[in-house]
Design brief:
The chain is an alpha+beta fold. Among the domains are: 160 residues, Methane Monooxygenase Hydroxylase, Chain G, domain 1 (Up-down Bundle), CATH 1.20.58; 84 residues, no CATH class. The chain has eight helices and eight strands. The strands form two sheets. Strands 3-4-5-6-8 form a five-stranded mixed beta barrel.
Length: 391
């Protein structure tokens, strides 16, 4: 349905309503009514001579238009004066923005936000990197200082190890070559201490060193402490078992017969028995004719076998004991077959000390090879001093 137009009487709206309708200026004249006089005060068209004979300039600014009456918002049909109206409002321009433009604008805001966050993170990252570089520089300085301290400590330990090796070699020569007890050995061992240990690696920033160097440092610390433990064990042993060690050494220097064998009769034939005698006698001196055999809970008197005798001679009369003939056994053979446990332990400890100090001998299988502490110390000292010189 078409919207009905509302006709507004402008004369009434402007407060100029009149009961008499004005005749048209161009239409047919109304009879009996004089034509209206032309309005006064209207400027003639451009180019028409104004009163006074001065034509209007062709580019003169047009006279300002009289302000139109304003309409009150609460009564649109009531006229108001121009000075009562508000300043003219600027023309509103409506711009239609499509969905794509809005989405692109939103993405732009996201990109700007992401860029801002990235810039912040980048700034933080640069600060962190600079701080990390400074921290690493401090760690490197600490590592260089630690390398110097480790080199000094290892040099000191190397001197202690070499001193211990010299004392052990001298004692071994006294015992095995001269067959004598090393009287000052225990005291000498007490005056030596291998001072380097894994505790010396703490706080030295060894994580900045090469992996092979770090492994060598731990190997050196471990073997140094093992060597020091063996040194202390030997010291206590030579203090507490001095008499027993002297007997072993005396027996090696002046061998004694301590064991014999005698032959008895068994169901299937003669059977030899190994036994210890009560009073050992020296191999290089005259032998006794009789010995006392230490049996299981009893002592048996035996004749030393000389030549041609039967191994067991029946008693002469009832109630007497049979005569047993015993054959002395060679001391070195007994020592080889039945070594003294104390002597074995001493030899094993001395061998282990030699391996720790000097390493395994040539020809040792690769799986059993071991670098000695002296050589390991020399290698570490060179590497650690290079670390200090390179910074």
């Amino acid at each position: 349905m078409a919207e009905k137009k509302v006709k507004i009487d402008l004369k009434t709206r402007l407060g100029r309503a009149s009961s008499t309708k004005a005749p048209s200026s161009t239409g047919t004249p109304v009879p009996g009514v004089a034509p209206p006089a032309p309005p006064t005060g209207i400027a003639p068209p451009p180019g028409i001579v104004q009163p006074g004979g001065i034509p209007a300039p062709p580019f003169a600014a047009a006279a300002p238009k009289p302000a139109r009456p304003r309409i009150k918002s609460d009564d649109p049909f009531q006229a108001v004066s121009a000075d009562e109206g508000a300043a003219p409002r600027p023309q509103e321009i409506k711009v239609e923005i499509g969905h794509d433009v809005v989405q692109a604008h939103s993405k732009g805001r996201v990109y700007i936000a992401v860029a801002a966050v990235a810039a912040a993170l980048l700034g933080t990252g640069i600060g962190y990197a600079l701080g990390g570089m400074s921290a690493r520089a401090d760690e490197n300085k600490a590592a260089v200082k630690g390398a110097g301290e480790l080199a000094t400590g290892i040099e000191k330990a190397k001197g202690e190890i070499s001193d211990l090796a010299t004392k052990v070699d001298a004692a071994a020569k006294t015992m095995f070559k001269d067959k004598k007890f090393p009287a000052d050995f225990s005291k000498q061992l007490g005056n030596i201490t291998i001072s380097f240990s894994s505790a010396d690696l703490a706080g030295k920033n060894i994580n900045r060193l090469k992996g092979s160097t770090v492994r060598s440092l731990f190997d050196f610390a471990r073997d140094a402490q093992e060597l020091d433990a063996k040194r202390d064990w030997l010291r206590r042993l030579f203090d507490g078992r001095k008499a027993s060690i002297e007997d072993i050494l005396t027996g090696a220097q002046n061998p004694k017969v301590s064991y014999v064998v005698f032959v008895g009769k068994a169901e299937k034939g003669p059977l030899g028995t190994f036994a210890k005698i009560k009073d050992p006698f020296e191999l290089n001196k005259p032998w006794p004719d009789k010995v006392t055999i230490l049996g299981a809970g009893q002592e048996v008197s035996a004749e030393r076998y000389k030549s041609g005798e039967v191994f067991v001679k029946p008693p002469k009369k009832e109630g007497d004991a049979p005569t047993v003939y015993a054959i002395p056994l060679e001391p070195d053979g007994i020592a080889t077959a039945f070594p003294d446990p104390l002597g074995i332990r001493i030899q094993e400890e001395l061998k282990d000390i030699s391996t720790l100090v000097n390493g395994t001998p040539p020809g040792t299988p690769a799986s059993e090879e071991k670098t000695g502490l002296v050589k390991l110390a020399e290698n570490l000292i060179d590497e650690l001093k290079t670390v200090g010189a390179g910074h």
